[in-house]
Amino acid sequence: MIGHAATEPDLEILEPPPFDSSIVVELLRAFAKAVRAHQLYLPNNPMHTRAIDAAKSAFLGVWQEDDSLTLQVTESELR
């Protein structure tokens, strides 16, 4: 909305995950590395392949604990 004063976003309060949150931290790290590898390397490059495989593995770790993951993305943080 134009002219709207910057205020704290209205965020729904989420319950903490029913498992160790370090799994999500590792997932986000692996995902960020995969995004960078996708930008930097061709698909036939081993670095690209390893980063994508690591991201897939990290997602499997989360899916073994729960069937969904909700992230809130704001201008300054991920929740």
How would a textbook summarize the main sheet? none
Relative helix content: 40-55%
Q: How many distinct beta strands?
A: 0
Poorly predicted regions are: none
Mean pLDDT across every amino acid position? 84
* Oligomeric description of these chains: single chain
Give helix and strand order, one letter per element, not per position.
HH
Span of the ends, CA to CA: 23 Å
Cα-atom radius of gyration: 16 Å
General form: flat
Task: Report the β-strand fraction as a percent range.
Answer: under 5%
Instruction: Determine the number of helices (DSSP H or I, runs of at least 4 residues).
Output: 2
Classification by helices and strands:
mainly alpha
